[in-house]
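Researcher: Sequence of Dockerin domain-containing protein follows. Predict its structure.
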Amino acid sequence: MLASGVHIFSGLVQGLPRGTQVAYFIVAADSSGNLTTDPQSAPLQTLSFEYLPIVPGDGDSNGKVNVFDLIALIRVLGSTLTPTWEQSFALDLRHNGKIDIFDLIELLKLLSTNM
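Model: Prediction complete. Tokens:
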């Protein structure tokens, strides 16, 4: 885990299959060697989250790419759907921070290879 700002830390968990349950706790030390944990009762108490990777093109977050994802992307382009963070990440197939007609083309390519 690396410091990425004041009281903000980040880490990368790689290579986990979809649906893997991960438990973690945090131990931090200052320059004097004083330790603290979060939660304070760690490791007796654990916090957990479920790792669910985002599938590129999966606009309805069901884990697969199909015609319903095409509908979701068209709705985003037509401003009838405000995408969640996960949908935005999945539908931004060109990874340029926006969903546009070029992402639609990429999704059509994905769909043609999945058929």
